[in-house]
Amino acid sequence: MKNIWIINQYITSPDIEGEGYRHYYIAKHLKKTEKYNTLLITSSFSHAPYRHNKFKGLYKLVNKDIRTLILKGNTYKKSHGIGRILSWIIFSINLCLVPFISKKKVPKPDIIVLSSLPLLPVLNILIFRKLFYPKTKFIFEVRDLWPLSAIELGNYSDKNMFMKFLAYLEKLSYSKADSIISVIPRADLHIKNVLGHQNFNYRWITNGFELPNEKKDKIEDIFEGKIDSGTFNVGYAGTLVIANPLDTIIKVVSRLKDEKIHFYVLGGGPEKEKLLEETKNYNNIHFLDRVPKQFVRLFLSKMDVLFMGKGTKDTKIYDFGTSQLKTFDYFYAKKPIIQMLASNENPVTYSNSGYVVPPEDEESLKNRILYFKSLSHENRLQYGERGYEYLIENCTYDKISNTFDKVFDDL
What pTM was computed for the model? Predict the structure, then answer.
């Protein structure tokens, strides 16, 4: 049985008082093969998804469903502030303790998977391989293209010394990894640009979805009286951040009130207060607070079309595609999707479950909304069914863990 370490300071799972997430589900499904003993290594604090584990000492080992090593970290309020950067440093420092923990608690790794962000732990892994685990294989998982994300979305200069340091760590990770995987479909094009060659092992492994154990019991309709069933409803469920702009769809839908088209937003985030202020005079734009996951599915079921967006018309980072987690919730809801994105490299295009329109293109977005409104319920359902079929065939964590199994075997 091979020992796998998966390192990411934002891992969360039911075992550590959080929600189920990518690495937890991958480890859970790998466990069924009886080929792997997986250890998740994370920080005591995660801002997204939010989780705060409190304990005495520098680390805590949780050995429930999936063995998880939690390293003491700092808390912070802003995802783009100095506190978050400090958390990367603290996590990397505490990671140095791991080789000295009892082998019964933390078995020697055959494979280490480092999932970005952050990038700093690549230095730990290189030291580990040099001093403790010379035969251990290293897989680098790319979930965000840093420092490109910070430069594009955070308005940092590529001349900034910290951005240059992150660029160094990024290139180091690509060059030293035995295999590179990414949730971004064409991240290989970016990696080729960074390295200046294409002599690397790469595989796209999409973000995924854990099929829920649907209970037969009917859940309470907490949206009763909050969602108008007599209108054509466009919905968004997710975090309200700069990277997921809603400005364009709000402008478009606000002008379609005579068409009885409404836009419902379910979720919270740093952009919510600004959006509430901007829409306070629009009676067909509605904001609903965050709810537990089972109610998110209920919300999606009440929508006619689902919307999501990434970036602006000037954002280049999404040229390589996206694999947004909400895509798979949308697929499971069997609803047609409109995505604002400057790339056709994404599951919506691959599945033919909706349409991609350019960011900030109000006319294209309006035309697609009106197009779906003109369709019969049965014709809209065909789009939703294609998304659902694509989800089941390609994007469940059961399927994804099989792909990880193949990557491990190839090493």
Answer: 0.91
